[in-house]
Amino acid sequence: MSSQFWKPGTEKPRLLEDEEGGVVFFSPSLASSSSGYGHASIEKQRQRLPVYKYRTSILYLVETHATTIIVGETGSGKTTQIPQYLKEAGWADGGRVIACTQPRRLAVQAVASRVAEEMGVKVGEEVGYTIRFEDVTNKVRYLSFEALEFYLIYLCIVIMVDEAHERSISTDILLGLLKKIQRRRPELRLIISSATIEGKSMSAFFQARKSRHQMEGEELPRMEPAILSVEGRGFNVQIHYVEEPVSDYVQAVVSTVMLIHDQEPPGDILVFLTGQDDIDTAVQLLTEEARTNRKNSSGLIILPLYSGLPRAEQELVFSPTPRGKRKVVISTNIAETSLTLEGVVYVVDSGFSKQRFYNPVSDIESLVVAPISKASARQRAGRAGRVRPGKCYRLYTEEYFVNEMSAEGIPEMQRSNLVSCVIQLKALGIDNILGFDWPASPPPEAMIRALEVLYSLGVLDDDAKLTSPTGFQVAEIPLDPMISKMILSSSELGCAEEILTIAAMLSIQSIWVSSRGAQKELDEAKLRFAAAEGDHVTFLNVYKGFLQSGKSSRWCHKNFINYQSMKKVIEIREQLRRIAQRIGIVLKSCESDTQVVRKAVTAGFFANACRLEASSQSGLYKTVRGSQEVYIHPSSVLFRVNPKWVVYHSLVSTDRQYMRNVISIDPSWLLEAAPHFYQQQRLNPIVH
Ligand code: CDP
Ligand code: MG
What we know:
Layout: E1 22-26, H1 40-48, H2 55-64, E2 67-72, H3 78-88, E3 97-102, H4 105-119, E4 127-131, E5 134-136, H5 145-155, E6 156-161, H6 169-184, E7 189-194, H7 199-207, H8 210-213, E8 226-230, E9 237-241, H9 249-263, E10 268-272, H10 276-292, E11 300-305, H11 311-318, E12 326-331, H12 334-337, E13 344-349, E14 352-359, E15 364-371, H13 374-382, E16 390-394, H14 398-403, H15 419-427, H16 444-456, H17 470-476, H18 481-493, H19 496-506, H20 519-529, H21 535-548, H22 553-558, H23 563-582, H24 594-605, E17 609-612, E18 621-623, E19 629-632, E20 645-653, E21 657-664, H25 668-673, H26 675-679
Parallel strand pairs: 2-7, 2-8, 3-6, 6-7, 9-16, 10-12, 10-13, 11-12, 13-16, 19-21
Antiparallel strand pairs: 1-3, 1-4, 4-5, 14-15, 17-18, 17-20, 18-19, 20-21
This protein binds cytidine-5'-diphosphate and magnesium ion (MG).
Pfam families: HA2_C, Helicase_C, OB_NTP_bind, WHD_HA2
Protein name: RNA helicase
Domain Helicase C-terminal: 252-429
């Protein structure tokens, strides 16, 4: 069962690696606010930020308007300053909370620590944060993302929806929800902050209710939104294009960075790539290149930046560059607007990012590397002009930029599988989902598909209401409902301990070290853990080995396993275990009975069942649901083994549709797991 050519994954599975965001809280102060004491230099820094000039206007607008839209360039101080201004003005007094939502986890933590530092407090005191699986507020209490929103809305007096231009699903849901809630709670203030001038469409969205709910001249706050534009202070950025399209953008990144390093004056470099895999590759190649480059070999500090990066590495990215050195930060689009890096003078833009695409007809959602929009390209270039005039190197042609790049991205809502979104709304008590007022309506087919899946999982009943207890339990687990269902079933099947391990493993992009060059060794290492049943059981072997080694980093190194990922797995598993306990899952182990484990996986993922085509020598499978052609990904332990029936965890599209994380099943389990679902199939009978 060896895989001859293991390719590092080209996609991020859903769940944690989604960069799901969180909330920064500003809670009532117990002691008096300590900002200002012994913070003279921080105070000065704060006053130098562009938003500072608008402090009074912002406070006035928030006081007098239900919704204030603030547009301002990245780095102008929107995220870190505005909530502090509100707090200083007394909005958090009397037990009320100011919240600022972020679409990315990493940004949540970075912002909370920065603000705590500015306020002279510890994170968790007057400023805290909540992200999925982690709650650092002064009320020490776990809150799932869903519960969090629910809980927040009732405690909050001001909610700042940050990075609204990104139009992530969570942002859009929140905007729809808040608009609804504001009708009932006019005292609730919204701030929508955005880095691009898309403010108008947001304004139109919030404007739409005015005539129905408020007449001119009524008392404050005014319901029509206020728009404030914060003038930036960006420097000029010179744009360079490539003359010919590049074929390998990772390679092009490496040579461009080396060129800048050799020829340009000091200043840090920020590179935009797409995800952990190409970033790790670029870091590796650049490190080698820098080592062999005689001229200035010791001058480069090469650092990756992506969601899920260990804390210590994050801190390196944000710490000032030592004199005589040049920092190269290789990032996902997280550094596009969510985070500000000081000292960047050069930007290298690959022109790509990872984006989610969903086809409701085939019901296939994939994260693919796709071209960015002009709006993104401008944002990326803008990062080079923070401290002085800078340069941006675009790894695409000018002709391409002008004629082919789309002006704006499509809201995530319109290109995603909506299963999690629907369950989130249901849990919030929104029954009429089809009539929900979205900033951008999702395609009805996608909505119907999501309702179908949730119905077949037993999460929704005939009236499309959450079932009790399954629906409510699934909604409590902050993971994809298919994973949640798998966890619930493991309780009955007596294998919850194993399934929690699997769920944690599936939350991580990859537990293997991606290694260009050491392919053979990696394959051999994988073979040591490979299980005939498939990848999920292989995960259990890896986990067992890791525990037996005493969680040793040397053991990981020897086995081509990513130590950081394994530490994260342990952490997530522990958190999942706590949730499982809370919702009454029986935490038993099935020891080595892998059949019940596979049954539990099937109970969650029956919709992803595939059958090997009888005549196929090439490993062609068809999905039972939609007769889509799919293949087992070369990274799977079942690659070339090709069992007759499998379920997969996720699909990746490259030249073909590949199934990642695959497990072999018995087809009779499908009927057991989802009689309704498989009765509807008018395909060949399932069991022969
Ligand atoms: O939200 P916006 O992009 O408008 O700006 P911000 O995130 O509030 O950042 C304002 C300033 O705070 C930046 O220019 C940085 O100098 C600083 N900052 C920082 O040093 N470290 C952070 N983690 C965040 C911000
Ligand atoms: Mg910001």
